[in-house]
Amino acid sequence: MPESKYKFETITNHLITSGFMYPSSQIYGGISNTWDYGPLGANMKTHLKEVWRRHFVLEKMNIFLIDPAIIMNPKTWEATGHVANFSDPLIDCKYCHTRYRADDLIKKQHPELDVDNMTKDEMNKLVEEEKLSCPNCGKSTFTPIRQFQLMFKTSIGVTEDKASLVYLRPETAQGIFVNFKNVQRTQRAKLPFGICDIGKAFRNEITPGNFTFRTREFEQMEIEFFTKPDQDLEYFNYWKKECLDFVERIGLRKDYLRYRDHEPNELAFYSKATTDIEYYFPSLGWGELMGIASRTNYDLSRHMEYSKEDLTYLDPETNQRYIPHVIEPSFGLDRLLLALLCDSYDEENLGNDTRIVMHLNKHLAPYQIAIFPLSNKLANQAQEEVYKLLCKNFELIFDTTGSIGKRYRRQDAIGTPYCITYDFDSVNDNSVTIRERDSMQQTRVKISELKDYLTKLFEE
Ligand code: GAP
User: Fold this and answer.
1) Residue 10 Cα, ligand 1 centroid: separation in angstroms?
2) Which of 44, 75, 397, 453 is 20 to 30 A from 433, alpha carbon to alpha carbon?
3) Does the beta carbon of 288 sit less than 6 angstroms from any atom of ligand 1?
4) ∠ CA(371), CA(418), CA(355), 5° rounding?
């Protein structure tokens, strides 16, 4: 087991106080387990999406990015089985009113049981016969289990009747499947190829929590990679490696990552194989970051059945027509971000001082470079000569308050990789000091060479 040096709560408090995330609608007392991304978190999210797009779209030759709508024709969710089956078994303690997922409660107290394959009646019987106890108050008095629909319902149009019932998508993936034919035709795509998207998904989770780990509104980055039917397992292994490469590329420590292959009894009946990539979160332990699933031709077949549209593919090499199989790498953006923030947090003892430093990947940090005029008297020159020179190529923050030492600490604590100080000598020698976050080393660089110098640093 890797060891976490810091508590989850210490890190999340730091994230809130420094402006990565805030409790949502805080002035109204917040809303349960909902978070807003502040300037630092929003910047990082944008960067993470960009690095993901670079890795999975720009550096590949056969993946197309689309941006489908959140509200889809509700028949979509009948076809996928979400209307019938996307629900959690909910149970309440009658004594203290704490709410649980019944399957989680049973799993924790009886890990030897195969809860995923139990019916609601079987779970009810077990809760009663085994006298399961409430982890909060210790009493054994539970309500009967109720199935709880996880999709948020809303309505379109002027009347709130059944005809206008729609859902907020619980996953972004289905916007890809319903566009399979559109993309394949318009882009003249040949198998194997992928379609991906990045966007919000919504689930009325019973037990949201652990900061942004499980929320009701979150972002996914999903790929559906379509293959010939007999090539799906080959590509499953390919995507397993690609996804691990990606999470390592963005800087997560290798020994805090692992694959978790799903057992045969965990797999959906149509799935040939599924693997999660997990990260070891401080205080929480192993948690799923993303999943890679071989989904055979289930989704396209169901959409064919419900829409009556032909979603088959005519193979130009063999002239055979078939429904492609699919491998689905599905990332949770918020979890990935949370893992990165936990992974990079450090408190370094510097003898008579401690600094909080986020050792973030320099392409993901909220800002790339901070610019400090040593004195307010130098602010205009620093702005004219340095900020204006760099602002089109780099993401900058301009800070004029406090001593330079304090300004370094502030930037270390939010992960800014480089700080540039414009001092009184800069006026005469046309040079500035660049200070690197991790080593704290300082280098004097001519302003005329600054852009090239920094460009090289960010090419690494
Ligand atoms: N299309 C497949 C799919 O949606 P999933 O395992 O339910 O699969 C994929 O979700 C990823 O989305 C998860 O690995 C996780 O990172 C993220 N995710 C799912 N539910 C979430 C929630 N309530 N809050 C935050 N992230 C969530």
Assistant:
1) 25
2) 44
3) yes
4) 100
Q: Is the pLDDT of residue 460 over 90?
A: no
DSSP for 203-262? ---SS-BTTTTB-SEEEEEEEEEEE-GGGHHHHHHHHHHHHHHHHHHTT--GGGEEEEEP
CA 175–ligand 1 middle distance (angstroms):
15
CA angle, residues 17, 48, 273, in degrees to nearest 5: 115
Surface-to-core class of residue 397, CB atoms within 10 Å of its CB (0-12 exposed, 13-18 middle, 19+ buried): buried
DSSP symbol at 460: -
Question: Helix, strand, coil shares of the chain as percentages rounded to 5?
Answer: 35, 25, 35
Contact 170, 80 (CB under 8 A): no
222 lines ligand 1 (CB under 6 A): yes
Q: Are strands 193-202 and 99-101 parallel, antiparallel or unpaired?
A: unpaired
Average of pLDDT values for 136-165? 86
Q: How far is ligand 1, taken at its centre, from the CA of residue 7, in Å? A: 24
Using the Cα atoms of residue 122, residue 125, residue 127 and residue 130 in order, give the sign of their dihedral: negative
Q: Quick one: CA torsion of 290, 288, 88, 265, rounded to 10 degrees? A: 90
Cα gap 11→6, rounded to integer Å: 7
Residue 355 DSSP one-character state: E
Cβ proximity of 148 and 87 under 8 Å: yes
CB 142 within 8 A of CB 68: no
pLDDT above 70: residue 456: yes
Closest Cα to residue 115, out of 125, 124, 104? 104
pLDDT tens digit sequence for 232-257: 999 999 999 999 999 999 999 999 99
> Residue 86: what pLDDT?
83
pLDDT digits (tens, 9 = 90+) for 17-63: 999 999 999 999 999 899 999 999 999 999 999 999 999 999 999 99
User: CA distances (Å), 279 to each of 12, 104, 230, 254, in order?
Assistant: 16, 20, 32, 9
Contact in structure between 290 and 276 (CB atoms under 8 Å): yes
Q: Is 289 in the pocket of ligand 1 (CB under 6 A)?
A: yes
| Separation CA 39–CA 345 (nearest Å) | 18
Which pLDDT belongs to residue 454?
A: 98
